[in-house]
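Researcher: I'd like a structural prediction for the single chain below. Treat it as a standalone chain; there are no partners to consider.
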Amino acid sequence: MRILFCVDGSEGADQALARGVAWLRNAGIQAVVLHVIPEVDERLRHYERLHEAELSEIERLFGHGGHGLEVAIQARERLKQLGLEADRKVREGDPAAEILAEIRDGRYDLVVLASDGAGGVEEPRLGSVAEQVLRQAPASVLVVRAGARR
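Model: Treating it as a single chain, here is the predicted structure.
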């Protein structure tokens, strides 16, 4: 089973990682962590497959403030702590559009993402990215609400 874990560095995304692994622990998972950032320096694309230490240095030099690739690296490490090995990917652009493109390109069976959408019991709402992915994804989607009971 190919699973795409979408992360943004938030506490909700961390909860989604933990919940997804807990629910799917023995499912023969081939996992990928995806983080979408608004813009990537073209020089960074060339180096994306380098070792994490080199990526951090490149990111520091190119001025991304340690956030872009670091989110994907930290999420992959979190999954490793939870007992799941994963690849990592970083894409640039609109988060919903890039997540949907990765789902199509990677032929995933399941997508796990967090939603920080507000709303009450009578009128629950998803965040805009989660809603777009849920409506348009050609794969099953597991949406974990931020702050959800563990």
